[in-house]
């Protein structure tokens, strides 16, 4: 084979479909989407080069996702697993999400089997370690996180054709984590930073969440939600889309109680679907 039809190969992998879904399903995150496209392009071209017998080093696939909670890191991880599977870089394409508690034991001899069991489940797919910096606790001499890191390093190097690792968490703690663990840092090729959502983007996300459950905001409720998001973003522990989901869950609870308290009236679909401004205001007053 001396030539390849790029369009045909592109279509075979369904990469276009996956990238389009990424655009459709995720609001904002333009730099993240651009970086995922770049990685997908590199992997596709690398595969085509191999098909033509061109010598090439396998691209590094391990990744680092940094950013605040609720910015779509896990969702993008799922899409990345699909892309890697479609291009043949992983055999199964599943995503296994874990934290420190899944990897690190509480006594001598407990960590190695725990970590190895997780790695066994993840083989053939993507291992997503959330808040990965908690693996390393240098102030505690009796901590076993370093043992988990050593095992992880071995697998990332020796079985890199069988497993892709994504380390995720807040940016500053992740930077310190890599500084303290240069072996890990050297094995991470792709660093992707997830920006916080704007107020406008969070309102769009809220509408999408409600639409999935067949609710809708009245115009006044949208104004109230926009005001709430603007204020809430300035307070501690704001978790972007995760905080919005929690606020909407409370609003739905408030709507249900409002309707229940007026149970003498005849209900229409409109009453059951609409989230009113008061539902937002009463459910977010202390949050």
From TrEMBL:
CDD domains per the UniProt record, alphabetical: AAA
InterPro entries, A to Z: AAA+_ATPase, AAA_lid_6, ATPase_AAA_core, CbxX/CfqX_mono, CbxX/CfxQ, CbxX/CfxQ_RuBisCO_ESX, P-loop_NTPase
Keyword Plastid in annotation: yes
Gene Ontology molecular function: ATP binding; ATP hydrolysis activity
Keywords: ATP-binding, Chloroplast, Nucleotide-binding, Plastid
Residue intervals of the AAA+ ATPase domain: 59-198
Keyword Transcription regulation: no
PANTHER family: AAA-TYPE ATPASE FAMILY PROTEIN / ANKYRIN REPEAT FAMILY PROTEIN, AAA-TYPE ATPASE FAMILY PROTEIN _ ANKYRIN REPEAT FAMILY PROTEIN
Recorded family membership: Belongs to the CbxX/CfxQ family.
Record's protein name: Rubisco expression protein
UniProt gene name: cbbX
